[in-house]
Amino acid sequence: MTVKTAALGRGLGALIPQRGADGPAIVDVPLARVAPNPHQPRRRMDESGLEELAASIREHGVLQPVLVTETLDGYQLIAGERRVRAARLAGLDHIPAVIRQLADRDQLEVALVENVQRADLDPIDEALAYRQLLDDFGLTQDRVAERVGKARSTIANTLRLLDLHPDVQAAIGDGRLTEGHGRALGGLSVEAQAHVLGTVLDQGLSVRQTEELVRRLREPRTAPVEASPPSRLDPDLERVEEDLRRRLGTKVSLSRSRKGGRIVIEYYSDEELSRLYERLIGGTA
Length: 285
Description:
The protein is α/β, with parallel strands linked by helices.
């Protein structure tokens, strides 16, 4: 089988030493002796994508070698986990590989760079990998940015996703929310993020709509209208007001009077009025 070599990305050339002008030697290694990379940054693997890759491998073989390091028991994978898993699904016994001896930090860097440059990592896995490079291996954000070929501000923004509520992180990780949604929700307290998450998902809010919702929720509540005597809402009414805000995705104010009270629901465009009408009435205006 003829195996074509291809560069894994701009950052990998600096991490993997090359052997002469013809590039590194490629050997077939037994799949049974290839152990997974303990520093693999990707936590999730798309099963349907693996099946598609396995079908391609059955038809064409493995067109790009994986990267491994030798161990006492065989080999440890550095980069190419999808190819290894798909090759096993395809029924292969061996896989083409380039053998390199790399330190733990370099192994993580290579795996991270390959996944990032192939756009295979979700934003949360990417952030966790950056965090590991910073905390476990002592790299600076500038150094991480240099290694993966991204701006330092991009690295910093991605790392901030790890400050979000775990439920928000999970929604970003499985693709229900985008990184932009996460940055918007980051304007709220961690506890509030979990409450607002349901509204964003249920109503399918865009990033811009989510930003607007967060802005409204952060606005201080206006003083009660026609309240007599003027006073703060009791805790039960405050909870109702907050629930209505999250449910409707807009600013809602409650106030009490001697004979009852008022509910004020704000909207900022005809489109938003139509959305609120549909939400409240169950049909279009």
